[in-house]
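Q: Can someone sanity-check these two? First one:
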Amino acid sequence: MRQLIKDPSFIKWFYFGMHIKRWLLLLLIGVAVMGLGFGYFLRQAYGTYTFPAWVYYATLQFVPRIVRGALFLVASLGIIGFSVWKLNQSLLSAFIKPERNESIVDIIYNHRYLRRGPKIVVIGGGTGLSTLLRGLKEYTGNITAIVSIADDGGSSGRLQRELGALPAGDIRKNIAALADAEPLMSRLFEYRFSEGEGLEGHAFGNLFIAAMTNVAGNFEEAVRETSRVLAVRGQILPATLSALTLCARTADGSIVRGESAITERGHVKEIYLDPPEIKANPDAIRAILQADLVICGPGSLMTSVLPNLLVEGIRRAIDVSPALKVYVCNVATQHGETDAFNVSDHYHALQEHLKGSSPFDFVLANSNIEAVLPEEWHSEPVRVDSGTLEGARIVKADVIAEENRYRHDSKKLADALIRLYYERNQMADAEPEQMDIEREPQHAGVG
């Protein structure tokens, strides 16, 4: 019992919002009433029956009654607590995965805690979005990822051409990022066949979603059911449910059709959708309007972030949403898309494609830019060159992954965004040179 009380997680049972204390109190009241009933029986027995001598010592009659009462009360509380704990372990053992090394109280605490987190909508695609989602899911379960379906290369492109299925590549990555299933299941979903006629190059997750589309009847339901199977924290929504083609105009005036061709060609000046008037996913619009925090990026500016914002309904929903709106700037330039871009260049490119609209309150930029990237990457750190950008204030934080300075670190990035959300009022009043985030995040605590 002493070891249980010393356990740091033991105190979590008594946190506000755990829905535990009320039932423990009711249990104690029930036991007390039952004890009172036993007391009446014992009082009657004491008056009518002569007990053996050992009962005198067993019931501590040589100790004052008030001390006896306290001792029996403490002993009963210890027995009740221990029995309830072991009973919960026994009942929940069928639902706990031993390999996760999680306690019952941690599972309940995380469930209650995450339900109280802010409603966050993240818009983007590719590796950048999945990196962010892996960090955010530790702070809230109210996450909606709105993902582009413009991918036409690799496995997604083949399935689109052969089966007419909407591209699932970015959807797959983000389902795996938000999955609360065993790591083995996530690795399986990301597994890519390296051989086999017709299978080589395909990701298992893409095949799974394509099959689920036929089983469920449509792509939207397939994504929803796949998320349920993998115990996703939050939801994944395609920006639109209609097929589209991403097109680009290059520096020399050439027109390039298809995301994969744009990536290979490079030197992009402008992108647009074909057809241009495409309807947004109604669920995505609803999520944006109900959000507390809307985040755009990180990800390839031209081929991952902007394709979502060019869907007219998505852009309008962001404009009118009462949420805090943050654009997460990339930590490094991307060859062929954002060569030599600073933070302001990224933001101005967004503005130009959104017809001058400036929906963002803050721009989160990386402050750790000292290291030089390898020359073969054809990339350089994105530098902060301004304090404000047409109403959006720049906030700096170290959000880079030390093992790969071309990418964000999921934990650092999520920490910075959560801090910004809870400290937005102080940030709005701060001077531009004070817009660094260095403190620990303020959690959406329980109670």
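And here is the second, same format, sequence then tokens:
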Amino acid sequence: MSQHAAGGVSLVSLLLLWPLLVAGALVPLRNLRLIRTIALVGALGELAASLWIFARFASTPTDTFQFTERLPWIDAIGASFHVGIDGVSAPFLPLTAFLTVVAVVQSRTAVSHRHKAYLIAVFVFSAASTGVFTALDLALFFVFWELMLVPTFVLIKLWGAGPGRTHAATKYVLAMLMGSVTLLAAFVLLSVNHARVTGSLSFDYLALLDVDVPQGLGTVVFVLMAFSFALKAPLFPLHSWLPPALQEGPIGIGILLAGLKVGAYGFLRLIAPLTPEPFMQWRWVIVLLAVVAILYGGFAALAQPDLRRLIAFAGVSHVGLALLGLSSGNADGISGAVFLLANLGLTSTGLLLIVGFVHQRLGTTDLAALGGVAGRAPALAAFALVYAFAEAALPGTSGFPGEFLALLGAFREFGPFALIALLIVVLAAGYTLIWLQRAFYGPITREPVKHVVDLRPREGALALAVAIAIVVLGLFPSVVLDPAQPSVDQLVERLNGGADALATRP
């Protein structure tokens, strides 16, 4: 189904182009107030457009792609500009736009120099992320995947808050480039296999879905893509780049990196559908790594003295749960994975906002230097409590539906073994309550805390917007789950086909 704006251009294509147009409009400007105004209007426009597209999609959910557009690009290798959305990708468009708004508004008080360049980098990252979520051509997907690397490096390197920001930015780039090599190799192998079967190269996602991949080649492609996406997710033990990136980088890039789990999305969008047989054959490896990630990330978060590193390890734990749900291969688990990834964008953003507010006021996020903040900043503490409840998956928050469905799907498929994953509930409650108690409650032990100022109107509005989104999705999870259901059912069917093919092999 193709839906276009006036002039025949896909609405998704316009949404892709919009952040780049905003970034371009900022380039010649010099007046800081005008730069901030145009950036905010542009971010809000992106959010409004993405919500409208999602509402249109949700009104007629289907297992086919909507808002599609295909334009010629590199005919010699069968690559085209092909974009569109289905139920798996649709929720991530408004999420990306919402996080862009948060990053733009948050930058007003958090960024002290080169404000224009900072905002341009944020909009480029937003466009690249939207491209990853909408690309239906693997060559196009790879371009957007690589494009995310540039603004991330720049943001960490130039606006990082810690002394190790250069090391953190370099480590991130090297890790992502290593994953890019294996991802590109996997895409080329899939295209060559398409040529073997049909006589022509193609990177088109829908065309590749219709071509069988031999067992041996499928396993190689699965391993190559799994390495790249596990590195980006990140999944244990490939997570070491995330804690320094969040600790040393600015809050804005932390929100985008921790909130948009494009690596885990790669498992949903590419690995499971394109290599269903190897996925079902080797999913036990993903399950083991996911369970280890759940436990390791949770215990590591418990031991962290710094709020930024705590959020990083909590993210590793929740990514593990999302991949465990996906590995179940049933509708409950996969729906839970989709919802979990959407929820991580909100809860990580909320917690990182709290971290940013605390750092701006006290110059540190070390728990040892905090304590008693609630007495001086009750609004700040109240929003921290809401985000902590969502992180701990309290019913009524957006953390609960995805976690419940992922655990339900895992238990249905893996039985008692999946009960180990239930420890994520205990661990999440443990590290959230510990940091709340140490940072916000108890007696004031440090002089700077006595002079903490509560949230300003702009900060309060930003925190409130995130809190409202968390509560709305917690109370009405069908907003995400219902539109995703046809696409989830289609993915379950493909995985079942892969399992059946395995069962019939000698």
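A (reply): Looked at the second one. The mean pLDDT is 88. The chain has one domain: 11-504.
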